[in-house]
Amino acid sequence: MIAILGTGKMGEALMSGLLRAGFKSGQIMATARRVERAEALRESYGVRVVSNIEAAKSADTLILTVKPQDMAGLLAEIQPYVPADRLVISAAAGITTAFVESRLGTDVPVVRVMSNTPVLVDEAMSVISAGAHAGEEHLRHTEELLKPVGKVLRIPESQQDAATALSGSGPAYFFYLVEAMVDAGILLGMPRSAALDMVTQSIVGAAIMLRDSGEHPVILREAVTSPGGTTIAAIAELERHSVRAAFLAAIEAARDRGRELAAG
Ligand SMILES: NC(=O)C1=CN([C@@H]2O[C@H](COP(=O)(O)OP(=O)(O)OC[C@H]3O[C@@H](n4cnc5c(N)ncnc54)[C@H](O)[C@@H]3O)[C@@H](O)[C@H]2O)C=CC1
Ligand SMILES: O=C(O)[C@@H]1CCC=N1
């Protein structure tokens, strides 16, 4: 039995992925803070929505998907009911396995995960790290849960805040880029829906080329960039506006914010 504690956007996305991957609704429990939310989850997915304590007592795997700020409260609530034979998977930005272990106070295995919202279309990037009491079997079990909904990579926990900044938040940067490019289309007099179609198909095509060709992104970009042509005119402006430096600073800021969230 798997329980998802704090079933908001990420928790629901993970739960729907597990169901698409073949888990039965009877194998999954969810917890929610609001009654209407509990009812909506029950109705949409047919899962049992229970209290945090009941979930902690009866599920073998607990997936914690509350906000980092709510993690201490949730751990305090479930602490008396989590024996050391549970696997606890924490999906919150910034929260370390040591934080979870110290709050639970037993030798419970903890795996830290950072996934992202493309879990909704089975294209998540999930990175996982083992805590002090988690071994190969716990990492493997976590991979089995996450593989059906995307790619899974094991990384040292010291890189988790960087991964959060890069792939956890990553989809937001691409959506932001799409917004900006659609605005550019509007500036050039395109209808909004046509501009959105053009940009969306371009980003999908580029992403698939990048993933499937195995080519370095520089090679793929150079193939589009004709001497004296249109693309280099655009790239020159991006460089003039320090867009690369902005990305470096932005992702560093996201990493630092992850560290602050851990500090509470
Ligand atoms: N949204 C995203 O793209 C990503 C989010 N995350 C992480 O996932 C976690 C959740 O983020 P979201 O789903 O965006 O937030 P959210 O606010 O949609 O979901 C959190 C849910 O937990 C519930 N909750 C809080 N305390 C609770 C408690 N004691 N008992 C039961 N339910 C409780 C809230 O009512 C809410 O529904 C965060 O820790 C975030 O760092 C990770 C990767 C990507
Ligand atoms: O913005 C956030 O804090 C969360 C973590 C990664 C993506 N969203």
Quick synopsis:
By secondary structure, the protein is an alpha/beta fold.
Please, could you describe this protein's structure?
It is a single chain. This protein is 56% helix and 13% strand. With 264 residues, the chain is of the alpha/beta class. It folds into 2 domains: 2-156, Rossmann fold (3-Layer(aba) Sandwich), CATH 3.40.50; 170-263, ProC C-terminal domain-like (ProC C-terminal domain-like fold, Orthogonal Bundle), CATH 1.10.3730. Strands 3-2-1-4-5-6-7-8 form an 8-stranded mixed sheet, sandwiched between helices. The chain is elongated, with a radius of gyration of 21 Å. The two termini are 31 Å apart. 34% of the residues are buried. (2S)-3,4-dihydro-2H-pyrrole-2-carboxylic acid (A1CAB) is lined by residues 93, 164, 168-169.
Q: Report the sheet-strand fraction.
A: 5-15%
Bound molecule kinds, no repeats: 1,4-dihydronicotinamide adenine dinucleotide, (2S)-3,4-dihydro-2H-pyrrole-2-carboxylic acid
Output the strand order for the largest sheet.
3-2-1-4-5-6-7-8
Give the SSE string. EHEHEHEHEHEEHEHHHHHH
Helix run count: 12
Structural class designation:
alpha/beta
CATH topology of the largest domain: Rossmann fold
What is the CATH architecture assignment of the largest domain? 3-Layer(aba) Sandwich
